[in-house]
Amino acid sequence: MNAPLxxxxxxxxxxxxxxxxxxxxxxxxxxxxxxxMPAWTPGSYMVRDYAKHIVSIRAESDGLSLALTKLDxxxxxxxxxxxxxxxxxxxxAYDESVRGAHLDTAHAYFNGPCVFLSVFGQEDMPCELEIxxxxxxxxxxxxxxxxxxxxxxxxxxxxxxxxxxYDELIDHPVEIGQLSIGEFEVxxxxxxxxxxxxxxxxxxxxxxxxxxLCTEHMSMLGAPKDFxxxxxxxYAPGSGYGGLEHRWSxxxxxxxxxxxxxxxxxxxxxxxxxxxxxxxxxxxxxxVKRLKPAAxxxxxxxxxxxxxxxxxxxxxxxxxxxxxxxxCGLISVQSYLELLGQTITRVLRGGGRHLQSVAxxxxxxxxxxxxxxxxxxxAIVSYYAKGSLIALSLDLKLREETDDRVSLDDVMQECWxxxxxxxxxxxxxxxxxxxxxxxxxDLSDFFAAAVRGTGELPLQPxxxxxxxxxxxxxxxxxxxxxxxxxxxxxxxxxxxxxxxTQRNSKAVFSVVMNGGPAELAGIAPGDVAVALDGLALTTxxxxxxxxxxxxxxxxxxxxxxxxxxxSTEICLAAAPVDTCYLEMIDDADVSVQSRLAAWLQR
Length: 602
Ligand SMILES: [Zn+2]
Description:
- The protein is an alpha+beta fold.
- Helices cover 26% and strands 27% of the residues.
- It has 15 helices and 31 strands.
- Strands 5-4-8-2-1-12-15-14 form an 8-stranded mixed sheet. It has a 5-stranded mixed sheet with strand order 17-18-19-21-20, covered by helices on one side. Strands 6-7-3-11 form a 4-stranded antiparallel sheet, with no helix packed on it.
- The protein is globular and about 80 Å long.
- The structure holds zinc ion (ZN).
């Protein structure tokens, strides 16, 4: 053992989903070493109290048992000892999300904060991690994928890995199992993708496309000085979606069928979603993992860390994740405009944007965005979706008002050199200050309205001056995400202002929109639909039934609330014009066309 802190993780009982994690401290505190389990994981802004997964914990020193006292929900203190102290914990791991830990007989995955205790007062000390294989018969053919530095381990094998400190130790998720691995380089820096799950994906194409994507990202802000490797960890089950960013890796989940099969060359909607996810997490290498809000510098992993800037870190990342796909040619301009139209549609369909600003949504992410209930769409605006539209508006505004001298790229470069490369946190007013400084513009009204206000963004005029026409229409039903012109329907569609969802074989009103016909009729979330206008109402006949009525029609509606039958009358309204699609303006003049080209081609 070389490092002052030695961690060891062993899939002790894969069938029971139990890891054994031991931690040996060479020089424990004289008055009794304190150990702490994080309450949350960077990038996922909700207190999850990972200590709750510890099923047993004990300490020893020199081979003898040592008293370990629990101080609160996530801290323990060992009795004073002159010799090294070891803590041994058994941790239940059955959370199959990118931020969790999961162990079964097929694989092992862990995100550091779920399994590693920190050593109070020694958070800056170097750590080594010994990753041990499970006992037979488990673990046959298992390989290890992590961006953690190898010390005594062959590539993709069990052995000893190293991290400079605790913060780095928990920033390298580890996937262990039967993996498909592809490798490529980006500007000479080794990159890899490791896929878990039965996949027949075209690995050569995945590597080629990821290389194109990563090269484009790197051309914007340059490789961070400590960026000497990168790993995409991908789990591809039948369905699912998610991602979590880290400094040298990311954990991704996407549906197996989203990945390209050998022999295919087009970009399916699913593959575009996967590329967008990879693009998003990779841009986080800069934006949020190294360029961070001051509130995260350093992270306080015991309690909520509030900042109004999540829209900068998630919204701007959500803007570039799609834009970069178009800039590097992985998707067409048409396809990019479709994605933008879908994002605009998502924002327009949420009434919460009239009540909550993105600054408030950022600040309250811990208790609102991450803890959504049936009222979420009425009360919450997404700092991802609206944040990305603020980034779009800002980018187009800067380009227009500076005659293409300054863009959002320049602002991000300045933020990066000021706070990213230095590792200093961005102050709460930092982003707006840099924008104004780089552009030489007074942007205070724009930020007051877009970031701290709840009005609509000036997207239509800004897009028009970049050669893009902004259209709105009614929705064509549940599957209509926007982004496309859609089929022209003669008749005005009607609207109930509620979502009907299949739950336990019942049609349940899951979301009831503020001010909509359902709310006015007294319908509440959780009500079970029984009949409309005297006929049974189901999730499968819902759209077809509604198509037979006109706005203003008054219909009898029967629902169960609990076991009580409620009879009411609903007055159908005209469907809102909340579905956006964008088109290039064919006859835009040359200056507009060149502005469009500059925006999409850098
Ligand atoms: Zn993100």
